[in-house]
Amino acid sequence: MAKWIKACATDDIEEEDVIRFDHEGRTFAIYRSPDDAFFCTDGLCTHEKVHLSDGLVMEHRIECPKHNGVFDYRTGEALRAPVCVNLKTYTTKVEDGRVYIEV
User: Fold this and answer.
1) CB 30 within 8 A of CB 39
2) 93 with 4: CB under 8 angstroms?
3) pLDDT tens digits, 4-63
4) CA 91 to chain centre
5) CA dist list (Å): 39 to 29, 85, 103
6) What is the pLDDT of residue 2?
7) Against a cut of 0.90, is the pTM above it?
8) Side-chain half-sphere exposure of 1, counting CA atoms within 13 A
9) How far is CA 34 from the centre of its chain?
C-alpha cells in the first residue's frame, strides 16, 4: 500500500535544481522545475548507481554527473546514452510549504 512521505520544504530546492532525499534505505531525487512544479525519481542513475543529486538540471532534464547520461525527470525517460533504462518516478504533492512523495 502506497503512503505519503514528507520529503522536504519547498524552499529547500532552488528553481531548476535537485536535492537528495534518503528514506528507509532508499535514495530519491527531488526536482523543482522552471515552472515551479516538483517531481521525484529514484536518486541513483540506472547506468552505474551514481547519485543524481550531484548532476546538472536544465529544462526538465537531469544529467548524470559520471557519464553524462540524461533523463527527463518528469517521466523518468532515458534520453541520452549511456543510460538506456528509465528512472522510476514518484507522485509528488505540496501542502503547507512541504513536498511529499508517494512511495
Assistant:
1) yes
2) yes
3) 999 999 999 999 999 999 999 999 999 999 999 999 999 999 999 999 999 999 999 999
4) 11
5) 8, 18, 13
6) 85
7) yes
8) 1
9) 14
